[in-house]
What we know:
Blueprint: E1 2-5, H1 21-33, E2 39-47, E3 57-66, H2 72-78, H3 83-95, E4 104-107, E5 117-123, E6 129-135, H4 140-155
Antiparallel strand pairs: 1-4, 2-3, 2-6, 4-5, 5-6
Amino acid sequence: MFSFHTHEVLSSIHKVESDFWEEMLDKLYSKVVQKHKSCLGLISNTIKTKPNDKVGEFSENTQFLFKSKIDPDKHDLLLLIDKDKFNAIFQEYLAFEEDDRSDFYHLKEKYEIGFEMLVYPLYTQLEKKAFLMLEHPTEKIILDRICSEINRILSEK
């Protein structure tokens, strides 16, 4: 995992303070992932127990929210991100000192995903974790927009 991009103007939010984890993931999916061509989807370690579940529960498997028009080859490769790979990515991310963390990370061959991509990590104090998956490369201006949109969504009361 290599630090790739940090929003220069404002500090981005990665720690989600809301108890409504699944509701936040749904908002991020509809307002960020669906909006940006470079976004591939979201992956998390939680699952909704019913369609209107706003909090979610931990899952034994990784859970995906894919963009509807994703390259089928990339879709199949992303499905190979199991709980071990998912946790390894977060273990590395959380090992960085908070001041040294970036907004986006470039995943190369280390995690054996099958292609290079960018991730934007999200987590709660309850060990709920997720990350946005994006195409690599993605232009800096788009990454800054995505950071601003994520901040706006996660700052809403």
